[in-house]
Sequence to fold (548 residues):
Amino acid sequence: MTPGWWTEAVIYQIYPRSFADSDGDGIGDLPGITARLDHLVELGVDAVWLSPFYPSPQADAGYDVADYRDVEPLFGTLPDADRLIGEAKRRGLRVIVDLVPNHTSSAHVWFAEALTAAPGSPQRQRYVFRDGLGADGGEPPNDWQSVFGGPAWTRVTEPDGRPGQWYLHLFDTAQPDLNWDNPEVRAEFVDVLRFWLDRGVDGFRVDVAHGLIKQADLADWQEPQEILSGREVDKPRPPMWDQDGVHEIYREWRRVVDSYGSAPQDGRVLVAEAWVEPAERLARYIRPDEMHQAFNFEYLLAAWTAPAQYAVITRSLEATDAVGAPTTWVLSNHDVVRHASRLGLPIGTPRPNGIGAQDPQPDAGLGLRRARAATLLMLALPGSAYLYQGEELGLPEHTTLPDEARQDPTYHRTRGAQRGRDGCRVPIPWEADAPSYGFGPTDASWLPQPPSWSEYALDRQRDVPGSTYEVYRAALRLRREHGLGRGALRWLESADEVLAFANDGLRVLTNFGPAPVPLPEGAEVLVSSAPLDGTGHVPTDVTVWFRA
Ligand code: GLC
Fold:
C-alpha cells in the first residue's frame, strides 16, 4: 500500500449547520467552525470533512447544490471558506470538502435552463429527462422509487403550458439527477474539482459515488429501493446503483487530484460514499487508479456481537488489502442514528431510519457504554477512522424530536413512516449553562436541543477523568504515539464473547459477554472505555487497551 497521511488519518466530520453558530441565527456557519478549530486540535484528529456549505435552497440540508463554486449565505462567504481552510492548515488539520455529483439542486441554473428548453435539447441532456408512458405520457418512465420515498420521477410543465416530460431524481424532487453520459457534465465537475483544489483543499468526500451511472435501458426494478445495494456478488445489480461505468469517472478524477499532489504528505484524496456490498465490490472503488478510500458502511451496520465484529473486521481488512488501499472505519455520520443510541437498541434490531417519540426508545446507559467500547475497538484498528461531530461527547440521537420540527425530506416523503435523519443532526452542546449550550450566542437552534444535553456539554467533560471526551482524547493520543493507524492486526482471541488482538506493541480486548474477563498477568492498562471491576477484570461491554 502506498503510505500517505490519509492511510492512517482520523477524520472528523463537521456538519456545518449544527457545529457552531457565530451569528446567532440558529444555523451553524463557517466562521463558527473556524472559531472552534482549537477544539479539534485538542481532541487530536488529523483532518476535517465538511458536509456541503454551497449555495442551496436546503431542500436536503445542502445536499441540493445550486452553485458548486460559492458559499451559501447562511453559512458565510467564499472568503470565510478561504479563512477556514487557511486556519485549519495553520493548525496542521487537513480539510476535505463534500462533492455532490449525482444531482444538482432544482435551483441550479442548468436545471432552470433545462425547464425552459425543448425536449431533446442540449440543456435537457444534462439531466435524465424522458417521455412518460401511456397514451398521454402520464405515467412515469419506469417504476423506480426515490430513496427518500415516493416516485423517483417528476413530470414537468413545458414552456407552452402543457404537461411534458419527466425527470429522474433518486432523492428529493428538488435534486434532479445529472446525466453522466454527457461529456459536458464530466467537464464541469473536473472544473469544480480544480476550483476547490486551487483553494487548497486536501480532498473530496464524494456523495452517492455509486449512483452516477444508470443502466442504459433504465429497466424497471421491482425490488425495494434502498441506497444500500446489499447485493451478493453474483446477484443482479440494481439498475441505478454500482454500475461499472462509474469507475471511468473516478479514474479521470484521480488523474486530476494527483496532479495537485500525490506524495505521502501532500496527497489530495477522494473518498467514496458508496453504499455497496459486499466488501469486494466496494473495493473496486479504491483500486490504485481510482479513489483513495471508501466508507465502510458494512462495519457501521455490523451487530454488537463478537462473531459479527470479528467477521466484518476480518473481511474489511482482506478486501482492502486485495487492492492495496487503506481500510476505513466509521460508526456514526449525519445519515444514521448516532451509535450511542443505535447500540442501545436490542441486538438484531434492523437499522432504524431515525427514532421518534412514539418508537421504542433505546437504553441510553447501555448505548453509551457500548458506544465507548465500540469506539475504542475502532480506534485501535489499522487504517483510517471517521468520527462524527458530537460523538466525542457521547452524544445520543435526539429520539423525541417533535414531529413538527422535522426537516428531513425522508420524513415528509414517507408521510412520517420513516422518521428520518434529523435526530443525529441536532446542534451540539459546548457549554452546559450557555444559551443553546454554547452552539451560538443566542437560544436559537434550527432543531430543538433536548433539555438533558447539558450533561454532554464539552465544558462538563473536559479534564474530567473517565468522561467520554477524555477517553476519546486519550485514545487518539495513544493511537498516534503507537502508530496504530499504520500498524497490523493480529488476532489473539475470537471467541463467542471476547475479541482480543494485538496491533504492534499494543493489545486490545473487548468483552461482549455477560461475565467479567481477566487480563493477562501483569497487564498495564493504557485506557479503558469504562472502569475495570474491583478485581481488575474487564466487565461486560468494555474495551481495554493494554501492554502485556
Ligand atoms: C448522501 C448524503 C445524504 C444525502 C444524499 C443525497 O447519502 O450523505 O445526506 O441526503 O446523499 O445527496
About this structure: The radius of gyration is 23 Å. The chain is about 25% helix and 15% strand. Residues 60, 63, 100, 171, 207-208, 273, 334-335 surround alpha-D-glucopyranose (CB under 6 Å).
